[in-house]
Amino acid sequence: MNIQTLLSDKIQHAMILAGAENNPEPAVRQSGKPQFGDYQANGIMGVAKKLGLNPREFAQKVLERVELNGIAEKLEIAGPGFINIFLAKEWLADNVEKALSAVNFGIKTNNPQTVVLDYSSPNVAKEMHVGHLRSTIIGDAVARALEFMGNKVIRANHVGDWGTQFGMLIAYLEKMENEQASEMELSDLEAFYRAAKENYDSDEVFAEKARQYVVKLQSGDRYCLTMWKKLVDMTMSQNQLNYNRLNVTLSEQDVMGESLYNPMLPEIVADLKAKGLAVEDDGALVVYLDEFKNKDGEPMGVIVQKKDGGFLYTTTDIAAAKYRYETLQADRALVFTDTRQSQHLQQAWLITRKAGYVPDSFSLEHENFGMMLGKDGKPFKTRSGGTVKLADLLDEAVERASKLINEKSTALSEQEKAAVIEAVAIGSVKYADLSKNRTTDYVFDWDNMLSFEGNTAPYMQYAYTRIRSIFNKTDTDSTALANAHIVLTEDKERALAIKLLQFEEAVQIVTKDGTPHVLCAYLYELAGIFSSFYEHCPILNAPQEIKLSRLKLAQLTERILKQGLDLLGIKTVEKM
Prior knowledge:
- The protein is of the alpha/beta class.
- It has helices spanning 3-17, 44-51, 55-65, 89-101, 133-148, 165-180, 189-202, 204-218, 222-245, 258-261, 265-274, 313-326, 342-354, 390-408, 414-434, 446-449, 457-473, 478-483, 491-501, 503-513, 516-536, 544-567, and strands at residues 28-30, 39-41, 72-78, 82-87, 114-118, 152-156, 278-281, 284-293, 299-305, 332-335, 363-366, 372-373, 442-443.
- The strands form 4 sheets. A 4-stranded antiparallel sheet has the order 1-2-4-3. A 4-stranded parallel sheet has the order 6-5-10-11, with helices on both faces. It has a 3-stranded antiparallel sheet with strand order 7-8-9.
- α13 links the parallel β10 (332-335) and β11.
- The longest helix is centred in the middle third of the chain and has 24 residues, at 222-245.
- The radius of gyration is 28 Å and the shape is globular.
């Protein structure tokens, strides 16, 4: 049930009947204050101006034609032409009942799509660090929301698994295996990479072998491909440990690294040249884009093949877009990388469209995000100034959550306490990020994220367990509860019912704009409205009919909180 869409359709139809041209924008929004109704139609004035009519007179014509019988209990014209909509209690109660009994609360998209999500994207032979966190968890939350709405989601982990550095890495893996006379396990990827680089810089024989291995790898040599595959597998098995800890839905089957597109690159460059898009400039092949200007105001040149014949990230991103449309047959492709990649992707996708590799109907979207900052306002680093490993960050989260939960919880078994610590630790790191608008930088603050007050994971997880405790205290028969009817007599009950029915609106915004913070804000508001309802509307000691009605409101709140947190990849626990 998307109330906003329902009301928009009804108001729009009435606007057309009142004389507006096709597809007028009713601009229906949730009201900020109860006295202005539950929703407002704010588009009347703009349409009336185009028609040369007085906005209030046009609003009156719309009210005379709109069909909201049984949905709205009152409609009123306010100010210069706003329409305030007050929803009917009986309609709200009926739709809460339907949401309780329906699969996924009756939420599903009318136009399911195939959507490719490109997120996480770590590099082979390097450990994941905090720089990978935002891409990984924001992308995963959007993937979960899209699937929940009924779309087919293809996760694409665009791993950095190709390039000249692999000659060096293969040569060093060979050296380590020979010296140890056994299969080597990469337990410390960073140390492995550093040692390979040191050998390359200091040993010319080693460096020459590394350069030869690059050529062999790129020409498909079986031995080099086998060694390369070992490096990829060892890296991704370590990364999977991080994904599992983060409760992220990526698996090794979702890896679509740079190497996947490598065979496509020569053909793409030849085609760009044949179409006159790529021209030779000082030995390199360059696409000049009028849409982008350099500092001298001239069309900006984008290199797609270097003088030495090597390809660039732009060429790979053109191939990736082409592959996602042609091979994966997607309707949308979303790429989650930081804001610094914006111009690069815009240029790659512009070339893709100019070449005719994807139609205008294929949506290419860069879901860019800001940086994680320390309290000093600078990029988040270790005290010594180094990059923070993701595994170390999660270890510290568990350590801090353990201290917090041990101070607060005494009635939990050791098994229950361990589950709470893990849920709070990982949930806090994720929620602190997801609750911020992804397009902005945010300050990483342990104290704030582990607080049981405010818009935090511990607060949301506790709100869920608090509702669970209500059901643990009641002996109400489940059949009696299922057969009971919801009756909204108090303002707090009505406010809760409306907020519950706005869940779909929040999820739809996440799927449309890639903004999980909207869902976080919704869940936080829902928890607050429930808390106010619980304070003013007694449940367990209320008369039986009222008790059952309020229990059903509590039941739907519990389910939506759990589902909403699950869409964010955050675990709930039954007791805290």
